[in-house]
Design a protein that fits this description.
The chain has about 190 residues and is mainly α. The protein has helices spanning about 1-15, 20-30, 30-35, 40-50, 75-90, 95-105, 110-140, 145-175; strands at about 20, 55-60, 70-75. A hairpin with a 7-residue loop joins strand 2 and strand 3. The longest helix has 29 residues, at about 145-175. It is elongated and about 65 Å long.
Amino acid sequence: MSATRMLVLGVMHWAGRAHGYQVRTELVSWSADTWARIKPGSIYHAIRKAAADGLLEQDSTEPGDGGPDRVAYRITPEGRAELRRLVREGLSTPGDPWMLNAAIAMLPVLDRDEVRALLATRIKALDETLTRLREWRADPGQTPEHVLEQANLWVGQARADQEWAASLLDRLNAGGLRLPQPPAVLHPTRD
């Protein structure tokens, strides 16, 4: 749910205002259904929940295309703060690839220095994870051998994650990877 919430808030942030079908169309055009594991129905649920939580507010109602009216929303200041919090969490905390993928898509909501600090935090957390996994593999106790294969998988995933984070941090430190505010989003819909 958090990755979906982050992406919905991000699209609303960049679009200024949008209704659910526009948000869905935009996220599907990014293939977010694959890399963030979101389903179209969860987008509408995330919009309703964000509105109930005061993160979005109703902006207007538009006639639907042969169906019910569409409610357009805009993000609130609380919604912007929640978006930044979710991006920070997704970028700094290992363990949830869906949150990381969503955070990467939303990187431009943070400034370059903050992204660098969050990547350093992620790298440190991955160091701690790798240490714990290596200790477990060195002294597995009664853990069956086939279960220890999970540790081998997790070590490989943590190493790859750490290499990616270090590479991105190096690029940012060298002045690479522009993080501009994205232009208005929202692909045309058949309204």
